[in-house]
Amino acid sequence: MTPVELRPAARRELLAARAFYAAVTPALGDRFASAIDGALRRIGASPRLWSRVSPRLRRHVVSESPCAIVDRIEGSRIVVAANAHQRRRFGYWRGR
């Protein structure tokens, strides 16, 4: 399993999204967190499996939520650049 690290901006996005869903219902917030945790485990287990969105970045669509995790491989770790909502402008995370 490759270690997965979240950039500060990606961590803030994940926490804000979880808070949003938990405000709807606590169970929805829990389901969102579970879906993201599962996606991060899958990324750590198979980092090169997901589709490229640039020469360095890959995108893992989280089927249980309207989000995608954008990451890159840096040496022996994976760095998550964004937790991108599918309706947000594509590529806003570039430069992270």
Secondary structure layout plus pairing:
Elements: E1 4-6, H1 8-24, H2 26-45, E2 51-52, E3 57-61, E4 67-74, E5 77-85
Parallel strand pairs: 1-5
Antiparallel strand pairs: 2-3, 3-4, 4-5
Helix pairs in contact: 1-2
Describe this protein's structure.
The protein is α+β, with helices and mostly antiparallel strands and 96 residues long. It has a single domain (4-85), classed as RelE-like (YaeB-like fold, 2-Layer Sandwich), CATH 3.30.2310. Helices cover 39% and strands 28% of the residues. It has a five-stranded mixed sheet with strand order 1-5-4-3-2. It is globular, with a radius of gyration of 13 Å. The model has no long low-confidence stretch (mean pLDDT 90).
Main β sheet profile: 5 strands, mixed
Alpha-carbon Rg, integer:
13 Å
CATH topology title: YaeB-like fold
Which term fits the overall shape? globular
Whole-number count of domains: 1
Distance between the termini: 24 Å
The CATH architecture term is: 2-Layer Sandwich
SSE topology string: EHHEEEE
Can you give the helix content as a percent range?
A: 25-40%
What would you call the quaternary organization? single chain
Unreliable spans: none
How many distinct helices? 2
How large a portion of the residues is in β-strands, by DSSP E?
Answer: 25-35%
Q: Main sheet: which strands, in order across?
A: 1-5-4-3-2
Output mean pLDDT. 90
Q: What structural class is derived from the secondary structure elements?
A: alpha+beta
**What's the level 1 CATH class?**
Alpha Beta
Q: Specify the CATH homologous superfamily.
A: RelE-like
Number of strands: 5
